[in-house]
Specification:
alpha/beta; six-stranded mixed sheet; about 20% strand; globular
Length: about 200
């Protein structure tokens, strides 16, 4: 799941399966789309709404509550379309968000996390029991992914070192594309100012 506060970012939510010698383990994770931090997670034997709500409860505890208007983005799995989850989100004054059917890019942020977990960690190891899946994956998310793994989208920082405040919105320079037709030719100082603005607010 990807989760977003109304004043910050989205939040995403997803359920995926990890295989071990004893069978499959289903993982549900709730991640803040602004900081990329995994806020809550739950693992179990079934894809169920209970698994989702357990992960959300952990996210609420981690954040000390969810902001009014939080948006929970997920795919169209039955866990996310259930009446129980809808009631839960109403109770926390949040909204469930879903995209169009058969749009593979819609839940891309959650899928990106899932790919990172599998390719950078899980597929490189042999896990024999479900208990080991629980402890090792939880440790990877909390100790490595949240605290030490850097993200280019976060300016080379880890999720735990990223502020929850929004980045300032860049103000248009007087030589922006919208003003080129009416502006005089820029001076060297103007070009330096434009370069500084681009460095401060990269696209």
């Amino acid at each position: 799941l990807e989760v977003a506060d109304a004043q910050e970012a989205e939040c995403g939510h997803f359920v995926g399966a990890l295989r071990c010698a004893q069978g499959w383990v289903n993982l549900c994770a709730v991640r803040d789309s602004h900081s990329r931090r995994v806020l809550g997670y739950a693992m179990g034997g079934q894809h169920s709404t209970d698994l989702v709500i357990t992960a959300l409860d952990m996210a609420v505890t981690t954040r000390g509550g969810l902001a009014h208007g939080v948006v929970l983005h997920a795919d169209r799995g039955m866990q996310f379309t259930s009446q129980n989850l809808a009631a839960y989100m109403r109770a926390v004054k949040g909204t469930v968000s879903m995209g169009w059917a058969e749009v593979c890019w819609d839940n891309a942020m959650a899928e990106s996390f899932w790919a990172t977990l599998k390719t950078e960690y899980y597929y490189r190891r042999t896990v024999t029991t479900r208990d080991r899946v629980y402890t090792r994956v939880a440790t990877w998310m909390e100790d490595f992914y949240n605290c030490r793994r850097i993200h280019t989208s976060l300016g080379g920082k880890s999720p735990s070192k990223t502020s929850y405040t929004k980045r300032p919105t860049p103000q248009p320079h007087k030589y922006s594309l919208n003003n080129l037709r009416t502006s005089p030719a820029p001076t060297e100082a103007d070009l330096d100012a434009i370069a500084d603005q681009l460095n401060d607010h990269p696209v």
